[in-house]
Amino acid sequence: MKIIISLSMLLSVPFCFAQKNTTQTNGFKITYLKSSNGTQLENQDPIAVFSTETESLITTEKFLSGKAEFPFEQTFIDHSKKRLVQLTRLGEQTSVATTDSTSIQKQSFEFTEETKTILGYKCKKATTTVNSNHIDLWFTNDLKIKGAPTVLGQNLGLVLEMNRNNNFLITAVKIEKQRNLSPKKMLTDASKGKNESVDLLTYRDKVWKSRFTTIPVFENEIINFSDASKSNDSILRFANGTVIVRKIKLPVIKKGSQIFIDVTEQSNGDAYDRTGSVFIIPTDKSISFLDGLKNGIKTLPTYENGNTKKYQGVVQTQNYSPLLELMRFFTPFGIKQYNHLQLKGKTWEESVPYRQDISELQSALDNKEVWIGAFIGNYDKGGHKISANITLHTEEGAKSGNNVLIPLFNTTNVMEMAGQDYATMFDSDNGLLVEFVLEKDLKNARLRYISTGHGGWENGDEYLQKKNTILLDNQQVYTFIPWRQDCATYRLYNPASGNFNNGLSSSDYSRSNWCPGTVTNPTLIDLGDLKAGKHSIRIKIPQGKPEGNSFSAWNVSGVLLGSE
Asked: Relative to the CA of 561, which of 24, 81, 216, 383 has its CA 20 to 30 Å away?
């Protein structure tokens, strides 16, 4: 239950009314600057500490000048009660606060005989260790007050310098006398609107989450195979429920921001490892993948490479852009639904989290209204349950990335359960060829390439190392073997994985760039500067031959990145 109270109540003794009058007395303002490896940090917001004999307030110069951006935090310390109040303004009329009576009291220090003078005051040295960080605190008792630029060392005296690991310093650069000073009143005056009082962990969680933007995409959505799967006002379902799609609006994203996608998955009935993908459906041309979802796979352009087969919607054409893949992931064997399959010494995970940096795709997301979809290939009525979010994190001083993004190919048969063919085009020497035209020169071009091999029997490409070769304008630019050898790391996500006589589980075996319960990372391939005009990219993989009803396939996606 949320508790909304006034800050004056939070600052008072618990369950008692605050005093009407706030004591004002003489004190000091101490200004601190940060430096790293001997160099003062640029464009920093100086720390400002206001201290009297009984109270301190930690704030910043930007807050004092009214230029602080949300969220910003201030900390009030009641030295007589050894208690602190942390308050963070989340918005113009919203604050969250917590009271902590243990952090200060639990601090322990070792004292040395060393001394040095800072700003004319003799300082003593105290040392401590916090999370394996060695910290030296230089403090003085000459001013008869207590205070520090952080919560650490509040009971020592007035801390004038904090040295962490001999490479990061917070140092006092100015001490000014203050008349009629009340740190408590300063904090109360800073509070506006609703103030929510919460426990310490909840406070930290709220403050942490306020530092970035979370955009919900899917929440506990079922991806299954059933005639009963129906669309609603917010989620469209296709291919018998194995594809879900919704439209979302993304905000303006500051240049250089870090962008992440999060997916959480549980089995809702299906026991097998399955291919999953989260993607954007480009709508910049006259035909989109959405047409195929709504009207059937045959409405999409087909690709042929001479092996007599036709592949629908896999490469870009003059009037069609393929799916822009945000994340390729793989479900484990039956997580959550099959946790009752017990093994001694194994405690199964309840869900599998996938989290991936997709910052290089910013130009496809920035201030856009887009169709985002998710696919998990399965033939199970219960299927899988997923949630997904996109988070935006502003990065100070970060450089802008590419401003050109062109989806070139995506062979993952997202509409498998509605008739889309598997990507078996690599059985031909021609492999996969996509041609494209650049209207302008492209600088620092890169190919964002995702590749996974499939064919789940003994001689299938899922379990064989196969070289991927990428050619630009018929010239080889990159070759590598996509392969994962860490699959056994994820055993606790795979309760339904089969166990073999040799002591291994199916989920332990190395695979062609994926494991049950993992994300497949993109490979970023440098292509150099490309001139305006016509170009081509060809992907060649020595795909294995079929055996009986078993066959191999390769799911590859490619996005051209660069700057004009």
From this structure: 216
